[in-house]
Every structure is written in C-alpha cells, then in structure tokens.
Amino acid sequence: MTQPTPASIGIVTVSDRASRGEYQDRGGPAIEAYLQEVLQSPWQAIPRLVPDDIDAIADALQELSEQGCCLIITTGGTGPALRDVTPEATERVCDKMMPGFGEQMRQVSLQFVPTAILSRQTAGICGSSLIVNLPGQPKAIAECLDAVFPAIPYCIDLLEGPRLETDPARCQAFRPKSKPATEPQ
After folding, report:
1. Backbone angles phi and psi of 23, in degrees to 5
2. Which residues are paired to 48 by β-bridges?
3. What pTM was estimated for this model as a whole?
4. CB-hemisphere CA count at 13 Å for 74?
5. 73-94: average pLDDT
6. Half-sphere exposure of 15 (CA within 13 A, CB side)
7. Is 127 exposed, middle or buried, given 0-12, 13-18 or 19+ CB atoms closer than 10 A?
C-alpha cells in the first residue's frame, strides 16, 4: 500500500529580532510541536523566519502557497505596534478573508488576558492555502490553535487540499456527516 504524500504546512515566524539572530525563535517551534501533537496524518513543516516587513511577509506567504502548502500558520506581528504588519501582509495576498478565525481566537484569549483585544489575528485564503495569523507567545499560540483547529481540516477539504486527520483525543476535527446516497425514483 502506498503511503499518502505528506501535507505541506508552512510555518512563518515574523520577528525583527529573531530574523537578525538576536532572539531565539520560540513561536515557530511551538507551532510545529502543536501540530506534531494534534495531527495524525503525514505532514511536513516548511519553516520561514522573516522580519516585521510587509513585503517580506507577503513574499513568504505567497511563496509557501505557490509551493503547495495547504496550511500556512504565522506567529508574530499581530499587535498594534508600528512594525506589526502580519495581518496587512496576509490581506495583501489573500483572495478571501476568514474573519471568524480571528474573532474566535480573540474570544478565547480574552479568558486568559485582557489585552487580547489589542490582537489583530486573522485568517484568509491565498490560492488553495489557508493562512492563519497567530500571536507570538507560545502559550497564546496553543490557546488560539485549540480554539480554531477543529475547523481547519474541513476548511482544507473545502479547498480541495490533502485530508488532515487529527488525534481525536487531542483535537476533535469537525466534518459534516455524509448524507446517505438517495436512490433514483
């Protein structure tokens, strides 16, 4: 039996300091660890580390989409600071925005920290890739992914991407139940 081709998942860390080597990237590894814990189907991470620069971020997102990543998860650059431009870069490359992802992540984050209202996480569709913007703190990354990951595999299905299977003990992915085929009259 042939093994399915691993799904490609882009992981983009947005950080001036980490891109200059002044700060260790903790966001990208936190996303990868989360995915290793939740996904049961084969997948491969395609990491990128870029500065807080709208062109660099947009270029990385576009490149990963063109390389066939079904899912691209970013970390960092979602706050109100002048250099925080990840949502703008995401909007630049996306054909459709998916505001429900950001709404859900902020709602969950508000249970942990009142400054979650300052966060500008969003999501969108670039070609056949789902892009999800996360905050930069590893703890917040897990909280946000727990909030939205149940919808991600079905979104990837709708984009005609690879089937992502989750560990139901860790994350119960939602997929509508199949309707039985009706017999012709």
Report:
1. -150, 135
2. 12
3. 0.94
4. 35
5. 97
6. 24
7. middle
Q: Where are the alpha helices (DSSP H) in the chain?
A: 16-19, 27-38, 54-66, 86-93, 99-109, 138-148, 152-158
Name which of 150, 153, 122 is nearest 135 in CA terms.
122
- Residue 11, CB-side half-sphere exposure with 13 Å CA sphere: 20
Tokens of 169: 């003990």
Q: What is the pLDDT of residue 178?
A: 73
Closest by CA position to 86, among listed 156, 8, 27: 27
* Residue 8 to residue 37: CA distance in whole angstroms: 16
The total number of residues shown for the chain amounts to 185
